[in-house]
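[09:14] KT: can someone run the structure on this one? pasting the chain below
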Amino acid sequence: MAQQKILVVDDEVSVTELFRMMLEMEGYRVRVVHDVQSAKSALAEEPFDLMLVDIMMPEATGLELCRYVRAEPFLANIPIVVVSARSQLSEVHEGLEAGADMYLLKPVSKGELIEAVQQALAE
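[09:31] RB: done, structure tokens below
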């Protein structure tokens, strides 16, 4: 079976490197980008099995990226897991409304992250 590919979108380099390490240790292929425009370019270049997306990023938010992915027929089925420090119930609801399949709160443990990824990929 081919390795599943995950796109990690977060403007914090320390977060993306931590996520990359945790996911690669579990056998996933990981591509990291640090803004929404780079994420759109990556999605146009290659298929991904799942996306991990932060909400708060410069220029465009992760919510905008979620809406973009859900509106594009060739991308609409990619599972999206939002990983954000925004923890208000209204913010979680907004993330799910924008198209996220799951919403995890930062800081997230390796166990939580891997479990969410496995669950999202299984659905």
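[09:33] KT: thanks! The mean pLDDT is 96.
[09:34] RB: yep, looked fine to me
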